[in-house]
Amino acid sequence: MDRGVSTIEARITDAAHGQRIDKALADVVADLSRERIKALMAAGHVHGTDGPVADGKRKVTAGQVFIITLPAAVPLDTVAQDIPLVVAYEDDHLIVVDKPAGLVVHPAAGNLDGTLVNALLHHCAGKLSGIGGVARPGIVHRIDKDTSGLLVVAKNDVTHEGLARQFKDHSIDRRYLAIAAGRVLTSAGTIDAPLARSPSDRKKMAIVHSPTAKHAVTHFRKLRQLNGASLIECRLETGRTHQVRVHMASIGHPLLGDPVYAGRRPALKAQLETLDFARQALHAAHLGFIHPVTKNALSFDSDLPADMQELLDHLHV
User: Fold this and answer.
1) What are phi and psi of 75, to 5 degrees?
2) Mean pLDDT over each residue of the chain, to the nearest integer
3) Among candidates 152, 197, 144, which has minimal Cα distance to 174?
4) What is the pLDDT of residues 207-242, one digit of tens each?
5) Tens of pLDDT along 21-62?
């Protein structure tokens, strides 16, 4: 057998009797998703007593045994880098990271290395069973480079699909702490406004009422009145690019330090320069979800990073 190749013996349970083989095997083998099972069958890597199994619709009976061959996961064409990480939680299926401001999540033009993915490839070396046959961390959501806070990443197909489903269903509990300009007059509110690329500046997001815009909802509540600003908690019902930043700016309270949405005359500019605070005052402070494999409810909180805490103290009334 090739180095790195492994096999799994899967016995059909009584509960899976009469099911399609792709669904039954996905239920029996915890770390393989149904889509991954289908791909393995198509590649001839699933065998029954009578040879390779290619028909996913084939019904199974309790007690049947199938052998699944797992080729070694193909390495991701991204270099692993020893970048320090603050890990809030980790098990065989996922990892929750407390990302510092300044760290890009995923390699892209202009940031080909030095990203969270590079750091995770090093940290999780040998622990990634692969997403779709590729040894890579499963990024299901992102936070901006200059936003700090909690991020969950999958290590295998089942976890990746399970988390992605929760994000799609809006059942993930995500709460951000933000320091917004001005005195927010209401104690709480909801901003329901669709987002898309700005027609006038493709580098920015904007509230756009068009068929291409994506539904976006932010619930907010004021936690504390500050000197010229307000400490706000934002709970995301959806997770669109720059959602909190655009939504808060749309009601006249852009985030302090936001280089894109704070306007030409940003609030408290002198105080921000004194503190050398040069990013949007936004922190992903709370993350809650159902573990896709264990089904346990998980919840994590992250304290304000030092720069935002210093800003908060400076603006304390």
Assistant:
1) -65, 140
2) 90
3) 152
4) 999 888 999 999 999 999 999 999 999 999 999 999
5) 988 998 888 777 788 888 888 878 899 888 888 888 889 999
| Catalytic residue (one of 22, 98, 144, 157) | 144
Contact 87, 96 (CB under 8 A): yes
Q: According to DSSP H, which parts of the chain are helical?
A: 21-28, 34-42, 116-123, 157-168, 243-250, 269-274, 306-314
- Residue tagged 């590079």 (tokens): 118
Q: Has 144 been annotated as catalytic?
A: yes
Look at residues 146, 176, 181 and name the one whose alpha carbon lies nearest to residue 255: 181
Of 93 and 7, the one with more pLDDT: 93
DSSP code at position 38: H
